[in-house]
Give the backbone structure.
Amino acid sequence: MNFSVVTSQFWSLALQGLALGLIYALVSLGYTMVYGVLRLINFANSEVFMFGTFATLYIEVHFLGYDIGAPSLHGFKLVYTLAFALLASMLACAILAIIVELVAYRRLRARGANRLASLISAIGVSIFLLEGMRMITISRPMTTPRLLDKWSFGEFHGANFRIDTVLTIVAPIIIFVVLDQFVTRSRLGKSIRAVSMSEENSKLMGININRVITLTFCIGGLTTGAAAFLYTTVYENTIFNVGFNMGIAAFTAAVLGGIGNLRGAFFGGIALGMLEQFASAMLGSQWKAVTVFAVLVVVLLFKPNGLFGEAVQQTRT
Amino acid sequence: MANLSSFNLRDKGAEIWAGWSRPVRTIFVLSMIVLVGLLPFAATWGPTSFLNTPITSFQNVLVYPVGMFIMMALGLNIVVGKSGLLDLGYVAFFAIGAYTQGILSTLYGWNTWEIMPFGIGFAMIAGVILGLPALRLRGDYLAIITLGFGEIVRIVAINISVTGGPNGIPGIPNPPTFFGLHFDLMHPETYFWLVFAMILLVVWMIRRFTVRRPGRAWEAIRQDEDVAALMGVNTLVYKLWSFVIGAAVGGAAGVLYASKVMVISPDMFKFDVSILILACVVFGGIGNIWGVILGAGILAYLPERIRFISEARQLVFGAVLILMMNLRPDGLLPRKKREKITEKRSM
Amino acid sequence: MNKKIVSGLAIAAAATLALGVVATSPASAAAKKSVTLAFQGPLTGGDAQLGQDQIPGAIYAIALYNAKNPAVKVELIKADSQCDGTVAANIAPGVAANKAVIGVIGTSCSGEARNSFPAYRAAGLTMIAPSASAVSLTDPKAPDRGFPIFHRVVAHDGFQAPALARYAAKGVTNPKYYVIDDMTTYGGPLAKGTLPTAKKLGTVVGTDSVAKGTADYTSVASKVKASGANVVIYGGYTTDAAKLFKALRDGGYTGILASGDGTNTSDFPGLAGKAAEGVRLTAADVPFDSILTKAQLAEFTKITGIKVPGLYSTTAFNATNIFLDCISQGKLTRSAIQLCVNSGTFKGVGGDVIKFNRYGDIIGGAPVGGYLVKDGVINYDAVA
């Protein structure tokens, strides 16, 4: 146990935990949205994330032509480039997520198959995408140029408010607010909630179930794509198996917050990010995963539906 | 091809089986056992030599992954198939069995037969420790907890010294000679017979359970836990039992495995193994012993058989999973039709 | 998806497999005089990069040899172990059963090596490893040693770890070490091996173990900065080293960064960007592209399709060449090869002399070189 690190580094750890946690939160939406309507773990979402990191990399390096040694961008050009890469990554992931739904879920659902069958076909898709990317990249890690120079806004008790840290905090919050409004206010959002409450009744009310499910995968893909962009921008590298750890973390975050629940994913992600940072600092990084799961078990024992599973009922039965 | 999805070979088989008299059944079972027992020689016998695996050794492939996967899939099937609990960390029990063999044999010089009950026992204890809190939860929460448990066992093995850290445990002895049968590297066929015997034992055990009270309780829990509880089934106890029995089978497989590979290390017990075993169960036909055996056999054997396509074989493996699940969502040999119910969606 | 399409796909898939079956069977009927070497290492799975970086070295060496039109041609089979002892335990008996195979280039990983020894020992098949560097593999007293079939053309961690600790602190008075590893069979022991030397030269102010593949290293960076360390040593591979070093530099750490041969790949400067500047690396392997001439490198690219040779392609090339030397001397059986490798004296591509001791290590120890990253290029600096 090392408490001195925690007291001296408290704000720094909290800030980093928040930034990391919000990336987890965005990816966990890919699990939680799908779980909300289908009651299935979307196992292929980790590879959707992986695809997004490569999409970002492709756009920046090959499409826009910024080589590894390219100097950092400034002003309007920076904003335009990053926005373009962000949109491209979101779009690519959304399209892939929709394809995943068509290949792994739609046919099985139409036949009323066992839910585990969908789980396995999603795992099949996941293996396929992972190995496909591995063969394309010959197992090599890849890197993006540092387009966003890491200047700092200033320090607060040792916590360094760097531009990329601030970006990974601000962008997900905006996305969550927009998404939350969309789900609670818009017609389509309401139909998603309707389907997640009762598929049969929604059908009776004339909601096109397939369209709603496609929409759900699309939204999950969009947020996962945004997370992939942020990840690539902050960490500036990717490799074919980057999705595995991210997928497990995001799934854990979704469960911690209450799976199937939008706000649960948000706070679950933040909680997980913080927990990882503080556990690494206090107990050593090797016990990080153990601490996370121990906390998860305890939380689920006392709140069997996750931290926010009970409080926010509108997206869950 | 038209009725591919609705054709149920399992029901057909059960029909034929029901039509046989007792002696015919006995003869059939005995001849099947002999045939399977001859399997290690299939690769060298002309007409069946197409079974041979390129690059890897066929007889060893029969032991691991084929035999071991079948055994573990049968164990996991008790948990997932019979009582409907989604366990994503089954590899933990396998690891516990393997480490029991590794530690007790290298530190205390015990042999495999002496260690076997301890390996099974420790796996069962782990099953209780994990099961007591985890089984109070439902469905996908159970999935994440078991997944976490699988990772924890591996991480603990990396971080403590008695398990040898990331290096693992080298120099694990083979089992001693047993009735003139040598268990060492030069005799993979005897290992196969040993694993086969254990598979038969597990199959017998599962069939006994299924027709008795636990089997009916599991079936009730799988179909609707609330109703089962209402009808007086102590759901937690029976769920725990299925969990612990599944763990025992995994532990036994682990003990055997460690004595076969002689060196174990934490990276052998990754999450992928849990997923693969689960895939075996679902691929073959969840809940049906024969389906699970067939599924595990195919999924363990296929990647080895298609090694000639080298690096693309994992890609093909993924594609096969997608295709087969789409074609036959209930698996190759689904469970009996009357057992097939639409499970409660809230699981 | 349309049902017919799906069925059609299934048939197509089945046909592909069936064709594969046909295609494999007559392959062994080649009448020409040839022998086979097997490469065993990870080519798929999470550790695939390690094997994928090495195998071009072997392919290149064999292509050069076969281009000289020798009496006996050499073929290469790829035995993909996925760096997994379980898989290796199956592959090794399979490779051993293939009578055409007279030598094994491998294994890449130390873990799989130990699972492969029993089968290769029984078959009398000689192994020359390009990268398995765990000390115990050649330790006369270790239960998992590879005597008498195992050899390696790489310095084991017992040499590298102290050298790394020395080289990292070169020119630093009162070094304060922070040692981090990646919890793998390679990184863990390497990092722990630096500790005794580090304690002798200065103080160890902290250690940490971060699982390979972790995304975020900022908490480690915070800890390192708080500890006041001025020398950070990392035991692990390129990808994670790049992430860690970036996080450290971005987090305001200004001291020395150092890592071992797992990080010493031509990918590293690109991956780590500015954070790579001044990083001290050791290696029992000399980067292949620093040895080859421009024309040779072009030829290498033409043959293997790889632009920049990866980690351990040099040692893979050396290991293959030792076998090829023996084959060109007319040693075509397993026992002849074993005798030849055990007693022969060979030349490495860099001009170094290779002769194995009784337990399979290079006599005098393979040299451990110290490298410095400057302007995005890894340059040889001094013997570490």
